Inverse folding.
């Protein structure tokens, strides 16, 4: 089984307070958008992906991320502090 984990991702669309990260912003050089991450997951054929270090500054709660998990075709999971992962 292939497992990928990523610690530098930002959600697509407007974020907290309708923030949109501009296309030329340096954050886009340092972090992956969900679209970019999904392309990488497909490219490496990861069967399970764990996303860590999701920032509250993005304006999404853990419940919001749990809802997002259901929207993606691959096994995508958002981590939380103290989470135990079985391989």
């Amino acid at each position: 089984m292939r497992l990928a984990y990523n610690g530098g991702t930002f959600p697509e669309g407007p974020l907290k307070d309708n923030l949109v990260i501009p296309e030329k912003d340096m954050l886009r050089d340092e972090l992956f958008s969900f679209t970019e991450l999904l392309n990488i997951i497909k490219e490496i054929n990861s069967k399970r992906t764990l996303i860590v270090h999701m920032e509250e500054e993005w304006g999404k709660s853990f419940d919001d991320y749990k809802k997002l998990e259901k929207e993606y075709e691959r096994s995508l999971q958002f981590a939380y502090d103290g989470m135990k992962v079985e391989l």
